Records
---
Amino acid sequence: MQEIVYLHGFASSSRSEKAVLTEQYFQAIPKVRFRALDLPYTPNEAMATLEIMLAEPPLAIIGSSLGGFLATVFAERLGCRACLINPAVAPHKVLKNYLGSYDHPVLQQRYQVSAEHMPLLKALMPESLQNASQYFVLLQTGDEVLDYRDAVQYYQGANVQLVTGGDHSFVGYQHYLPQIAQFCLQA
């Protein structure tokens, strides 16, 4: 059984629209186990959770936004494929604008985003990609949260699909699921 793992973005969960659509799509594919993980929001806790959950490397990791950043960190460590949807390239630069207290919608926990988390996120960021061909990156130019040009630059050499318009949620995501599955399931 081949495993595909989905990592949600900041202030999201395994029950987000993208996660649910992805789960429904992969359920129809034989011999594939799909898991959408709910991650803690502090960098150390998220990394500890992922190290346990990904002890057996998956075939591929799908990550959206902050989940795309974490998918990159683990794809680099594990050598697996990663499909990224509007990924955060340098989350320490973006999240510094979101300091404060939040509620996790599924875990039913309150969490803090603090300035102390920013150096931890920066330290996790791979300086460069070891094998750009293991990445499929979906970007929309209308992303109002992240500058898509940062991802275009960082993921040079990867299979990057740049879509004009859209927004951070990646409008029309469900139409890209066949491409995502094809990329993830390549041997």
Note: The first strand starts at residue 2 and ends at 7.
---
Amino acid sequence: MLILLAFIIVFHISSAALLFIATIDSAWWVGEDFSTDVWHRCLNGTNCTALDETFPDYRSIQAIQATMILSTILCCVAFFVFILQLFRLKQGERFVLTSIIQLLSCLCVMIAASIYTDRHEEFHVGPQYDFFQVSSGQYGYSYVLAWVAFSFTLLSGIMYLILRKRK
């Protein structure tokens, strides 16, 4: 049982790390001379512009920002609740709250990545961008990490539900 708990702790911490990286790093959409994420856009690796109200579809960007931050916070809260429940509750009652919080984190990251998938073309228009250059980009590793974090948080939420019945 100790090995299983150690695996779950490592899995949960790696989920949180993936969420932090996906939320912070500038690699959701990358191309030869640019990169963009949900916070700013960079041309030629140095000319970075923060996203604000002047960018198209800024409301969608704000929704992505909010849900990614919320998913990261929920994942961290779920870990602390897991540690508290591990020592405070008796067998059979454990980890239900942790599972619910982790599944909410999963839902938030899925919403953020889905919005970005649907709207990413609209984020790359404006006078400072050559649309042909930007449209020839591809999804970056932070975007992929967001989807990997989605699957990790989903799996850990399900593991907590299964683990609640274990001795």
Note: The chain has one domain: 2-24+32-163.
---
Amino acid sequence: MTRHLLFFGLLTFSTLYALIRGGRPEQIGALTLFAGAWTSALMVKPAGSRFYQVETGILVTDVAIWGVLLWLSIRSTRFWPLWITALLGAEVLVHIGVLFAPGSDWAAYMTAAAMWSWIAQVLLLVATRRHCRRLRLWGADASWKS
């Protein structure tokens, strides 16, 4: 339970930081990751049956988040969305792996599906900080490719 509280604390902090200090790509990414985390929390199966089979609701949510961040990778001038897209791709592969190995350990599945979200939040914090630095150094930071 403590791990969940810590994650949602990090999620809230990174989202607010990106919304207040980030450019439009950071804001879109933050809202997407925030909505995805809460949707995943709501879509998880009831206690006692979690992660014994593919978590379809979380898989669908992860694919949707992956799509938004892939679009952001293509359209924005930022490099960080590509990193998070790759992380989410690995997370989707974890779900697909359970389809092919249904007897997988539920704890390993849960951990492998969740760990990428922590890294994505840290990347968002670093990306927002770098955006602030570019603004301070150059006075502007173009968000979108022409």
Note: The helical segments are 2-21, 24-43, 56-75, 80-100, 106-138.
---
Amino acid sequence: MLNRSLAVAITGYQKYISPYKGFCCAHRVKHGGISCSEHVKQALLHHGIWLAIPDIKQRFHECKLAASALNAGNNAHGRARGRERNRSRRQEKNSILDNCDCCIDLIPSESCSPLEAVGGGVDACSCTPW
């Protein structure tokens, strides 16, 4: 019963929270496959909470390593790329604001699609989709 309740809670997180947080699971980005939340949910349902705990700890450790590797890779590509990306985002934001004076700054992250990042990819005043 506890395992199913936890799985339902994880499903709620996946459906209602994760799409709006603006970033994706580092393990999934680096290695492909399922996200950590899906991995944990499957481990709970297949093995039960007590047998799943070591597997969950291992997965989170691997995700932390993947995040570190991805961050190191991003830093290695140089700061110029980041400055160019920020300049592009500012220009995009300014062009949206020129067309609609009630828009909110909702620039999607690079690691997720605009739909995941802003819950539908449409700004606050129903201007054109990203």
Note: Residues 96-130 have pLDDT under 50 and may be disordered.
